[in-house]
Specification:
By secondary structure, the chain is α+β, with helices and mostly antiparallel strands. The protein has 6 helices and 8 strands. The longest helix has 24 residues.
Length: 171
């Protein structure tokens, strides 16, 4: 597609930094990206995205204001990027692309609702059960420290919950 840019990002490299305007939206061809915010001396994972999904610091991208979050590759990743201005131009010259974009945004919003729900649950076991329902494909792929951070629990609690689930399923 015209005005898209192939981008290769190595594991551990930032794709976007908090405080900057997110001027690119990316389609993940291969790999995994996480969003996170810095809270004092800890990083809090806010989302995790893998193949065949769009990724951006969406609030910053849509409003073209500085973002709160960082975006980092947690695997070597191949992306296809598009600038905000190019996307706006595409909306104008290809009106049917607005329907495609709406479907992507609907998916993004739906995923955000699940993340918000998980974050409000009080029990670690319940959070992880929801995670497995919504993101089972990530449960053995993504490092546990990011899953724990994503769920708002510490790593030791996540390990205990996973062990309990394993023991229950073996009975």
């Amino acid at each position: 597609m015209e005005n898209t840019y192939p981008i290769e990002v190595r594991k551990g490299k930032k794709l976007h930094k908090a405080g900057e305007i997110c001027d690119m939206i990316y389609f993940v061809n291969k790999g995994a990206i996480r969003g996170y915010v810095q809270d004092s001396n800890r990083e809090i994972t806010t989302w995790i995205t893998v193949e065949n999904e769009l990724v951006a610091s969406i609030h910053s991208f849509i409003l073209q204001i500085p973002s709160y979050e960082n975006m980092e590759a947690i695997e070597n990743s191949s992306l296809l990027g598009m600038k905000h201005s190019d996307l706006q131009h595409l909306y104008n010259i290809e009106p049917e692309f607005n329907i495609t974009a709406r479907r992507f945004y609907e998916k993004y919003y739906s995923d955000a609702e699940i993340r918000a729900l998980m974050g409000r649950l009080s029990k670690a076991e319940t959070k992880y059960e929801y995670f497995l329902k919504a993101y089972k494909h990530l449960s053995t792929r993504i490092p546990l420290k990011y899953i724990a951070s994503f769920l708002g629990i510490n790593l030791e609690t996540l390990s205990r919950v996973r062990s309990q689930i394993r023991n229950t399923s073996e009975k």
